[in-house]
């Protein structure tokens, strides 16, 4: 029992010694970098079906199997289940986007072709998102059912293998950093989506975990999920927070949430913003708000204080 009690402090010390400081980055809809941020992610292929040229010297984020436009043009490609199609308008299920079946060969080839074209440009790397099944009951189209039967695997393992094999194909086409976004479910991701953490960890440079919210007035859940993913995932983790509709109250809550995250061994925190001005607004609020900076000092948020001091040199 005594040796077990010693293990956790030793793990904590080792973790602290390896920590070189938290990076701060942006996820944006415009292909522009902003001073004061270390990581820059651009949505180059989006869930509404929009596709854009590569953003040079940035991480390009590619939505894989959510494409509302493609489904409108060819409804036969949608993922299906006994409760209907994987569409937002299907109120029998709760999905945030319209999902293409991940085994559709033509659409898979389209996505991989786009990733291959990105690899020919001078980019930082590629992040894949929504590369998985929409939920555990999907997909039961005749093609998926036949592929599952041929595999000899159970339903959960076949779906996980299908997604991991797709990621392996994509990785071969990526030059630079390869990352994936995670649906923020640390307990049931494999059963629900076909996301096998350990297998994917062998492929990626880091995991990108979006913890989106319209506000962070209540924020304990962000800290909780970040700690869960840090324990489970065997590669570095970045957490994404929303900053698209900033007000003073929302910015204060956002920055305090970042401050709590800065005490963990995260690779970084990403802020989802519309554009560069949105990002600068976050920085200016942090720099010029005396009560927030006093709060950082009072509660000894050394890492977040360092970040704000760096912003103060620019803003």
Q: What would you note in describing this structure?
A:
The chain is α/β, with parallel strands linked by helices and 315 residues long. The protein has two domains: 172 residues, TIM Barrel (Alpha-Beta Barrel), CATH 3.20.20; 93 residues, no CATH class. The chain has twelve helices and ten strands. An eight-stranded parallel barrel has the order 1-2-3-6-7-8-9-10, surrounded by four helices. It has a two-stranded antiparallel sheet with strand order 4-5. Strand 9, helix 9 and strand 10 form a beta-alpha-beta unit. The longest helix has 18 residues.
User: N- to C-terminal separation?
Assistant: 52 Å
Helix-strand pattern:
HEEEHEEHEHHEHHEHEHEHHH
What are the segments in which pLDDT stays under 50 over at least 5 consecutive residues?
1-19
CATH-level-2 architecture of the largest domain: Alpha-Beta Barrel
> How many separate structural domains?
2
Helical amount: 40-55%
Main-sheet strand order equals: 1-2-3-6-7-8-9-10
Task: Please identify the oligomeric state.
Answer: single chain
Count of helix runs: 12
Overall spatial form? globular
Total DSSP E strands:
10
Strand content: 15-25%
CATH class label of the largest domain: Alpha Beta
The name of the CATH superfamily of the largest domain reads Glycosidases
- On the 0 to 100 scale, the average pLDDT is 93
CATH topology-level fold name of the largest domain: TIM Barrel
Major sheet description: 8 strands, parallel, barrel
Structural category: alpha/beta
Work out the radius of gyration. Answer: 21 Å
